[in-house]
Amino acid sequence: MAGSGVRRFLQLTAAVGILTLISALTACKKQEAAAPQEIRPVRTVTVEPKEAGETVSLTGEIQPRYQADLGFRVRGKILQRPVDVGTQVKKGDLLARLDPQQYSQDLEVAKAEVAKADAEVTRSRNQEYRQSELLKKGFTTQVAYDQAVKTFKTAEAEAEAARAKQTQASENLGYTDLLGEGQVVMIPGSALFQKDGQPAVWLVTKDGTVQLKPITVARYQGDSVVVGDGLGQGDIVVTGGVQKLLPGQKVRLMQASAG
């Protein structure tokens, strides 16, 4: 009897210990679940589009674009400059104009080359058709027909290349006018993030979380980025620590400035 009582006492003590351990673990898990999510402090900039009134140095011969804050895409001598350096301009305003004579001539030459190439396509197409009909009747050889087909395909390729040159010549002529960009959005380069190989930025939403927003980059200007599309006035962009953020993560704004 005494031994039986001792066993019951030990079993009861073990059961109580197990229940106590389970209760303690449950309490720990509840405390862990209730632990607040980490709120990461971030530096930000608030988007405020500005007029693109960059200072432009326009003397002598203009080099390809991006060697100045705002410049021509083609070479040439300045023919006209209706605005002074530092003048505030609107989108589409003429800032400067290069002598377009050489580019106009290039365009006319390109048009002539297209006309010539199209004529050759017509001639070789007709020749291919004639050889095809003669081959059906046994009045020509397979070799002659194959050569006609080859000539026709070559003419088509050359015509396509000529049209591409005409397009480029037309664009170059248009590039002789340097126009104002109007309102632009500039952000620090540190704000850039890559999403699927494309540029993006982290935006702070109204509920204090961050979400990734794809953007297009118009150009790089020093340590800054000129945004072509994707941002609007009032957007809050994270400018520091972007590699450590996750979608939906809570953040606390440390400093906000206009950009």
Describe this structure in words.
It is flat and about 110 Å long. Strand 9 and strand 10 form a beta hairpin. Among the domains are: 40-51 and 184-258, conserved putative lor/sdh protein from methanococcus maripaludis s2 fold (Beta Barrel), CATH 2.40.420; 101-175, Helix hairpin bin (Helix Hairpins, Orthogonal Bundle), CATH 1.10.287. Helix 2 runs antiparallel to helix 3. The strands form four sheets. Strands 2-7-12-11 form a four-stranded antiparallel sheet, with no helix packed on it. The chain has a four-stranded antiparallel sheet with strand order 3-4-5-6, with no helix packed on it. Helix content is 40%, strand content 26%. It has helices spanning 2-34, 101-137, 142-174; strands spanning 40-46, 50-51, 61-62, 76-80, 94-98, 177-179, 183-188, 193-195, 198-204, 210-214, 216-221, 224-229, 236-238, 251-258. It is an alpha+beta fold and 259 residues long.
